[in-house]
């Protein structure tokens, strides 16, 4: 099997952000995307951004065009959200984003009426119906197909850092889970989801896809749902490990970190240097630790098993990547990662509201207010 990897400009950026639709008074999810999407999709047809539906009718996804910088992609997202709000506000619908809704129940949600979604639910059953999860996807352009799998391997060591920064799903169906990112562990229950297989070359990736198609596991590369994956159609590496970011500035910060990491490792390849890799069992442990403890996790950072607090290792990584971010025009956005480290990720802020009020509806109100404030 031969899989074409599209041409893409190096270190360009594309963003996808899944947004919840909620009743602003009760905080309950509302499955009203179908009544909004026809007009929204038509309005975005000639724009750089797109507005589309998702698995559940309580979700709208906004997607940027190809940005030369993080700021370009974020501007597209802001314009997309403005168009969505022009439709949702008169309809009495609020927008918010997090990895999970604090108290919604899966059996109250409706699946979008598309064949691929019905097929997913038919195959995955209870786990599929429980996919009340929202995330972000960060695409970074890669100019050489042969770089893709080595970059995926090196970036996998930083998935727990990204997961900890984005963690925003401490509640599930009304329960306090004890996890910073419950979404991370729920999502990996789907077939082909979770951590990537440790493939080294494009030929190995093609062989993997051929095996999966031949055995009926998937029909094409888009059904590979790894936490980080090649996206052949776009010529990108796509990071999918993150919960839904609760604000636009935080989305920009994580996007800048992903972009700078990809560029940093790409430069190492250009110089003929070997990229650092961890054994897959360390990746698995790191993912669990980041899901459980968020920014308080201690992660394994090298093949010898050295362990470091993720906050400290992130601070060191930011210092290393700041010159790269300057070159990419993303220094301001990257610096906002420090703000997340100082003020806490969304999961911590949600828990603080719950502890203060004892009311998960107030947590939803907090998320709605944060989302709004982040657009100003």
Based on CA inertia axes, which overall geometry fits? globular
Strand content: 5-15%
SSE string, helix = H, strand = E? EHEEHEHEHHEEHEHEEEHHEEHHHH
Based on the structure, what is the oligomeric state of the protein chains? single chain
Distance between the termini: 48 Å
Got a strand count?
13
| SS-based class | alpha+beta
Unreliable stretches covering 5 or more consecutive residues = none
Task: Describe the largest sheet.
Answer: 7 strands, antiparallel
Helicity range = 40-55%
Average of pLDDT = 97
State Rg: 19 Å
Q: What's the helix count?
A: 13
Enzyme class: ligase
Family: Belongs to the glutamate--cysteine ligase type 2 family. YbdK subfamily.
Keywords: ATP-binding, Ligase, Nucleotide-binding
Function: ATP-dependent carboxylate-amine ligase which exhibits weak glutamate--cysteine ligase activity.
Description:
This protein is 47% helix and 13% strand. The protein is α+β, with helices and mostly antiparallel strands and 376 residues long. The strands form four sheets. Strands 1, 2, 3, 4, 5, 10 and 11 form a seven-stranded antiparallel beta sheet that branches. Strands 6-7 form a two-stranded antiparallel ribbon. The protein has a two-stranded parallel ribbon with strand order 8-9. Strand 8 (193-194), helix 7 (202-214) and strand 9 (225-226) form a beta-alpha-beta unit. The model has no long low-confidence stretch (mean pLDDT 97). InterPro entries: GCL_type2/YbdK_subfam (IPR050141), GCS2 (IPR006336), Gln_synth/guanido_kin_cat_dom (IPR014746), YbdK (IPR011793). Keywords: ATP-binding, Ligase, Nucleotide-binding. This is Putative glutamate--cysteine ligase 2.
């Amino acid at each position: 099997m031969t899989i074409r990897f599209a041409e893409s400009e190096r270190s360009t950026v594309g963003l996808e952000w899944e947004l919840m639709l909620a009743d602003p008074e009760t905080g309950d999810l509302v499955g009203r995307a179908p009544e909004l999407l026809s007009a929204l999709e038509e309005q975005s047809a000639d724009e750089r951004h797109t507005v589309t539906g998702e698995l559940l009718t309580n979700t709208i996804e906004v997607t940027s065009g190809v940005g030369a910088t993080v700021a370009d992609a974020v501007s597209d997202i802001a314009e997309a959200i403005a168009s969505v709000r022009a439709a949702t506000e008169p309809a009495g619908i609020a927008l918010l984003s997090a990895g999970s809704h604090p108290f919604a129940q899966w059996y109250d949600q409706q699946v979008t009426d598309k064949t691929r979604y019905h097929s997913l639910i038919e195959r995955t059953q209870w786990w599929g119906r429980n996919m009340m999860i929202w995330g972000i996807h960060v695409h970074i352009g890669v100019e050489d197909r042969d770089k893709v799998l080595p970059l995926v391997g090196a970036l996998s060591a930083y998935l727990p850092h990204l997961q900890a920064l984005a963690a925003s799903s401490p509640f599930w169906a009304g329960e306090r889970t004890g996890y910073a990112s419950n979404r991370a562990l729920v999502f990996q229950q789907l077939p082909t989801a979770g951590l990537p297989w440790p493939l080294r070359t494009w030929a190995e990736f093609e062989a993997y896809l051929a095996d999966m198609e031949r055995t009926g596991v998937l029909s094409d590369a888009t059904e590979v749902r790894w936490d980080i994956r090649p996206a052949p159609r776009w010529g990108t590496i796509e990071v999918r490990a993150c919960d839904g970011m609760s604000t636009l500035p935080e989305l920009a910060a994580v996007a800048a970190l992903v972009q700078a990491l990809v560029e940093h490792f790409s430069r190492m390849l250009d110089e003929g240097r070997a990229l650092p890799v961890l054994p897959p069992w360390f990746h698995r442990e790191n993912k669990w630790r980041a899901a459980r403890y968020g920014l308080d996790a201690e992660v394994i950072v090298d093949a010898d098993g050295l362990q470091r607090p993720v906050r400290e290792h992130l601070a060191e990584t930011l210092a290393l990547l700041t010159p790269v971010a300057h070159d990419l025009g993303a220094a301001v956005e990257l610096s906002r990662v420090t703000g997340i480290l100082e003020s806490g990720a969304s999961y911590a802020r949600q828990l603080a509201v719950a502890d203060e009020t004892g009311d998960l509806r107030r947590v939803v109100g907090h998320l709605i207010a944060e989302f709004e404030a982040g657009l100003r």
